[in-house]
Amino acid sequence: MDDAQETFEERVSRLANYLNRAYKYNKPSILFAMYLSEFLRRDIEKSLTRVLDEQGLEVVRVDAKNNKDLPAFFSARNSGNNVFFVHNMEKGFPETLQYLNFKREELVEHHVKAVFWVREEELARICLEAPDFFAFRNRVVEFMEVPTAEERRPALVDFALETEYRSLDEIKRSIELKEKLLSELSVKDEMSSYLLDSLGILYGQIGSLKKALVCFEKSLAITQEIGDRRGEGTRLNNLGVAFTNLEKYELAFSCYLLARKIRLEIGDPEIATTENNINELKNKIGKKEFQKLLDTVEPKVEKIYHSMR
Q: In which element (H, E) is residue 284 found?
C-alpha cells in the first residue's frame, strides 16, 4: 500500500513493526521518516515512542548537530533494545554524512536500530552525498500531510503548556521543537502566546534569562492584542519572575502588581502565585529595601513598567 493511502496510525504501526522485528531477530534496522510539519513530527515521535515502550524497546534521542559521528555514538550507547531517534540531520551536514557513509558497516555489525527524522531536502542530500549509507536503508516512510488547525490544536496546546522535563537535554529538545513550531504558525494568536510563554519558562530554566525575557514580552503583547485578560495576568507574572532573576526589582515589582490587579479583577485563583512571588521578592531584598520599592513603585506602577521596558 502507498504511504499516502495509509492512515497516520498505520504508518506509525509499520515503523514500530520494522523495529520490533529487528529487535526480535537481532538485526539492524535503518529507517527514514520523512515529514513536512514539525507539529506532525512531534505527534509521530510521541505515538511511536509509546508503542515501542510497550514492546520493551527504549528510545534514545540523538542530536546530529552535537553528535556528528553517529556510528560511534550508536556503538557506544547500543544495548540491544535501544532505538535511536536521530534529528537535526541538516545541522550535522556534511560531517554526519561522511561518517555515515564511511562507517556504515558499523551499523550492521552492532545491529543498530535507528529512525532518521528528515525533511525532503535532507533526504535528497543523504541520497546524493551518502549513497552507500542510504543503500543500507530498510524503509522510507512518508508523513507529508499537514494537519488542520482544528486537528492539531488540542495536542499543540498541551505541548505548548508543557514545561516540566527530567533533564537538560529534554529541555533543550523541547525548546528546539517549540521554536520550530512557532515558525510554522502563520499568525500571532493564542497558540503563539502559549508557545512563547513556555519558551520563556524553559529559557529561564537553562539560565538564558534575556531570551526568556524577550519571549515573555512577545507573549504579553499578543495576549494584550487579542484581549486575553487571564493570559495577560499570567504573562505579567512570568515577566516579574524574569525581571527578578535579572535583578531589575522595580520592573519586577511593577509586573507583579499589574498581574495581581488583573487577577483580582477577573477572579483568577492563580493570584496566590503572584502573592507568593511578591513575598519571595520581599525576602530576597529585605524588608527595608522592599518598603522603598513599595513607596517608589506602587504610586506609578504602570508608568514605571512602560518606561523601563
A: helix 271-285
